[in-house]
Amino acid sequence: MPSLTVQQARAFILSRIKALPQESVPVQHAARRVLAQDIASPADIPAYTNSAMDGFALRCSALAADAPAVLRIAGEALAGHPFTGSVKAHETIRITTGAAVPAWADAVIPFEKVVEENGAITLQPGSVRPGANIRRQGELLRAGDAALSRGRRLSRADAAFLASLGIASVPVARSPIVSLLITGDELVAPGEPCPSGKIYDANSLAVQSLIESAGGICQNFGILADDPQVLRETLEAALAVSDMIILSGGAADSKADFSHRILSEIGSIEPWTVNMRPGRPMRFARIKDTPAFILPGNPVAAFVTFLEFVRGALLAMQGAERIWPEQIQAFAECDIRTKPGRAEFVRGFAHTEGGRVLVRPVASQSSASLSTLTDCNALIAVDHDETVQAGALVSVQLLDRLIG
Fold first, then answer.
1. H runs (alpha helix) in 334-378
2. Phi, psi at residue 373, to the nearest 5°?
């Protein structure tokens, strides 16, 4: 059976993914969605010239260069309530943060830099310069300027920014509907009695959480018995309502691996695996035009293969500009032993010390133990032709950026 590199497998999967149509959603629900169109600013930002501080608006030309200035307070400007009166050369107005700065004023001096008494303020020479503490109309964006670009996966800050532009709804890609099928006679749902020879199912929760973190809507069909007919019927039901299907368990082509057999009968499984650890048994398939993944049953292997392949496929469906895991560089604190020619995703702990990012593997690398994921905050991505010695730079994927 052919064995692909991680990069080859990603390219193949991407070539079989189709983009989903767009829809409009309220801006308050836009976080984690992918923009389907460029967004232009409908107005200048700031919309008007305003004060960046609580203080006093004034003319710098009214100040002496070598002597204290005394300015009479002629009024005030509040946020939402501009000052509309007139002032003389040696007068000022009280102003609050966000309030419109009158056209005649060219600076705002904070309260703490003046002495206020008897309806006037006194300020020392050199305490304020023209332009100080003023936010000019349009200095951030002009009406018609690009605000956010198509393909951007919106953060909560992005959604708030769009709201600040007065935008109530945004065009985004439709969220992919993902059917999740967990197989295995040995699995028991959490909270149920667990007889000898059985184990509790963690993959349902783990993979559903990962689907949702990648912008998908999960239809969890729960634990399925190792029964070919049950699996076939469930797959056919899932196929009618899914943009993607994920199975966990049965990835290997053995006598007991019904997932592999049934998928081969109703669809097609690509005749390759990925030379990687953990997760080599992962398979990619298609049922008609619906992409399907068979993830390994071992929880850590399912977790890693989701992050390295399935997450990117889901983001590609949504038209995201960045789909594969972001990597940073870190210095290895020790040698990392790997098998030549095999990509390895080593669970590690990354931290900053002396202005450098350092990373070290966690003690256990068992693909069956989820506890190893609670001990790590990163995956050390060792490429197929790479060896890592202490002090070398390695590629690191920070887990909170992938699933946070």
1. 371-374
2. -75, -30
Residues 9-55: tens digit of each pLDDT: 999 999 999 999 999 999 999 999 999 999 999 999 999 999 999 99
Report helix, strand or coil for 241: coil
CB atoms < 10 A from the CB of 353, how many? 9
The single-letter DSSP state of residue 59 is -
- What does the angle CA 296 – CA 394 – CA 399 come to, to the nearest 5 degrees? 50
pLDDT value of position 253:
58
What angle (nearest 5°) sits at the alpha carbon of residue 206, between those of residues 327 and 388? Answer: 30
- How many Cβ atoms are within 10 Å of 61's Cβ, its own excluded? 8
| Angle at CA of residue 320, ends 317 and 322, nearest 5° | 125
Phi, psi of 401 (to 5 degrees): -80, -25
Residue ranges of the chain whose pLDDT lies below 50: none
Measure the CA–CA gap between 72 and 60, rounded to whole angstroms.
14
The first and second tokens of residue 4, run together, are 């692909």
Q: How far are the Cα atoms of 215, 292, 305 from residue 313, in angstroms, in the given order?
A: 11, 10, 12
Supply the pLDDT for residue 366.
85
By the 8 A CB rule, do 197 and 187 touch?
no
CA distance 388 to 365: 16
Phi–psi pair at 6, nearest 5 degrees: -60, -45
Helix, strand, coil percent values for the chain (each to nearest 5): 20, 35, 45
In three-state secondary structure terms, 193 is coil
What is the per-residue pLDDT for 254?
Answer: 57
Contact 364/384 with Cβ under 8 angstroms? no
Question: Are β-strands 177-183 and 244-248 bridged in parallel, bridged antiparallel, or unpaired?
Answer: parallel
- Are 2 and 271 contacting, i.e. CB atoms less than 8 angstroms apart? yes
3-state secondary structure 64-109: CCCCCEEEEEEEEEECCECCCCCCCCCEEEEECCCCECCCCCCEEE
